[in-house]
Amino acid sequence: MAKSKSFFIILILGSLAALAPFSIDMYLPGFKSIAADLNTDVPSVSLSLATFFIGISAGQLLYGPLLDKFGRKKPLYFGLVLYIISCLSCVFVTSIDQLIALRFIQAIGCCAATVAAIAMVRDLFTVEESPKVFASLMLVIAVSPMLAPTAGGYLITVLGWKSVFVFLGVMAILMILACMFWLKESYKPDPTYSLKPKPILNNFYTVIEEPNFYTYALISAFTFSGLFAYVSSSPVVFMDIYKVTETGYGWIFALLSVFFIGFSQVNSYILKWFSSKKIIVWALSLQCIFSGLFLLAAANNLLNLYSTVAFIALFLACLGFINPNASALALAPFQKNAGSASALMGALQMGLGALASAAISMFAANVVWPMPAVMFIAAVIAVLCLTIGSNQIKNRNQ
């Protein structure tokens, strides 16, 4: 594939995959405004984030079979249209319950873009190219935490929090146009693929029983749950505890994203000398150490704004190495079932992200330690998954 064409395809796929993080990050600075406008409190508003995670997790299981039966583009268009309708409906909400329900529907639409983008990487690029492509995809995806909260903060300040959902709806419309005119169908529809429950479950089971998949998909999912712990608790930690302004919060979010972006790109270069498996081992080990020190400092009240930002940055830097390699290794055994495999991997990520977000909301809103606690637990479990899964992969290969 020509480099210029490959770059353009990665840009479109990255934009599709970035729709979910934009939908998560852009309205975070508006939590206080939403609470005031809808006569509720910030913890209740945070439930709209948790339901988004639940919706995007469940929805990916729906789109996986649809992508394998009808090709990639038709289910993608359906999801984007549903997303646009729910975004514009958010402008007219009058209660927090309505917003929570619409965010769930928004997530169902949004996840079509995420699953399709990941599946199309597997369709269009070889197994050897995939880690670098995922890293490039991450470059586009990771721009969203840099731009979304900052842009959201300014939009909310000038036009109010509802303007965020108008912006997201327009963004999805542009994505539909880009896919229609510049992205070809990458997978031939399979009319023999059954959408009955039993064949779908059997197909998912075929994916799940592959040791390569469950090992690296779980590693990716658990480390990502640490990211969601940071995202869901960051408005309280930065704006309530450290008294950062809405726009200041956006700039901190952007700064932290640089570490995620930068190290995912460093990963592309060091793949010339080290295997994906070796990179994951080292990155996971360091992530455990950094998150453990973060938790220890938080438990002893040794943190301030700057040290908190530094620890989060180190965690995200490790994630920049882990995620592209784990994603590529999880999907490597699949070609025919790439849609179902990517859906399961995405569902695991978002499902554990929802649990992490819910766990954070259960604790007091005036302490920092729940964030590093979830990060540390997630990193430790990911190490256990790697240890156990590596033995399973070795046994399968033998």
UniProtKB/TrEMBL annotation:
GO biological process: xenobiotic detoxification by transmembrane export across the plasma membrane
CDD domains: MFS_MdfA_MDR_like
GO MF annotation terms: xenobiotic transmembrane transporter activity
Transmembrane spans: 7-24, 44-63, 75-94, 100-121, 133-157, 163-183, 213-231, 251-270, 279-299, 305-322, 343-365, 371-389
Membrane topology, record value: Multi-pass membrane protein
Top-level taxon of the source organism: Bacteria
Record InterPro entries: Efflux_drug-R_Bcr/CmlA (IPR004812), MFS (IPR011701), MFS_dom (IPR020846), MFS_trans_sf (IPR036259)
Domain Major facilitator superfamily (MFS) profile as annotated: residue spans: 9-397
Record GO cellular component, one term: plasma membrane
Keywords carried by this UniProt record: Cell membrane, Membrane, Transmembrane, Transmembrane helix, Transport
Record localization: Cell membrane
NCBIfam families for the chain: efflux_Bcr_CflA (TIGR00710)
Family the UniProt entry places it in: Belongs to the major facilitator superfamily. Bcr/CmlA family.
Protein name: Multidrug effflux MFS transporter
Species of provenance: Pedobacter cryotolerans
UniProt lineage: Bacteria, Pseudomonadati, Bacteroidota, Sphingobacteriia, Sphingobacteriales
